[in-house]
Amino acid sequence: MILALITLPAVALDVVNYSSHGRDNLPYDKYYRELLALALNKSSPRFGPYQLNGVDAGKTQTNMIELIKHRHIVNVAWTMTSKARERELLPIRVPLFKGLGGCRIFLIRQGEQERFSQITQVSDLQNLLAGQGADWPDTSILKANNFNVITAKQHNSLFSMLTKQRFDYFPRALHEAYSEAARFPELIVEQSSLLYYPAPFFFFVSKEDKRLAERIEYGLNKMMADGSFEQFFNQNPYSKSVLAKANINNRRIYTLKNQLLTAQTAQVINSKQYQTSCRQFQ
Question: What is the pTM for the complete model shown?
């Protein structure tokens, strides 16, 4: 009897590295990491095994984008999109937080809620000083909408700057503010106002990393199709707790324009995957 030896082709391991620099303890980053892992799992029958790693690199958003662009150390990021970022990197146009990232509430100093409760129109906010990251798309959006913005290169610097009265308020995405306020006892989440502008958060990879982009998009679309994305969003402890705390229906909502969206991303915003009003989350 002759035994035939069949050599199965080796399956490539997809190594997926994200920046964990100063981020591993942030609850909202945990949401994105878990969602990425679910998408990679969904795509495993078609694309094979993977290894997901956090690496201590990417000190700023600009630095992280450069690392991904050149496929150096980091090869995936989750961040708010813009025309510039879509020129530099390859976006996977599935909104990761459905639109919640465009609902901006504020960190303010303890004892200043009454001051903000007196605000009744957008011009009141425009006359104050907002704090933002120097390389964030939000900074350009706020300035284009006639807001006064003070910037810092490092994300963590903004909390001490707010405490030291370098500016008046720090607009944050709904899913960011509460965990950050918990880290800084001298700060609180403002209770009466909300800024809204369309601001999808996408996964991004290098333009040369088309296989990884295809894999992540395939996994996310599978999740959309089988309902597991909606289940993850609705049942994830972080997104559930944020929506419960935010009390959106009792806030004054000021809608701004976002001039940084590409035509392709604008189409995504008009799809059923994306909520176009913060009140839709209630």
Answer: 0.86
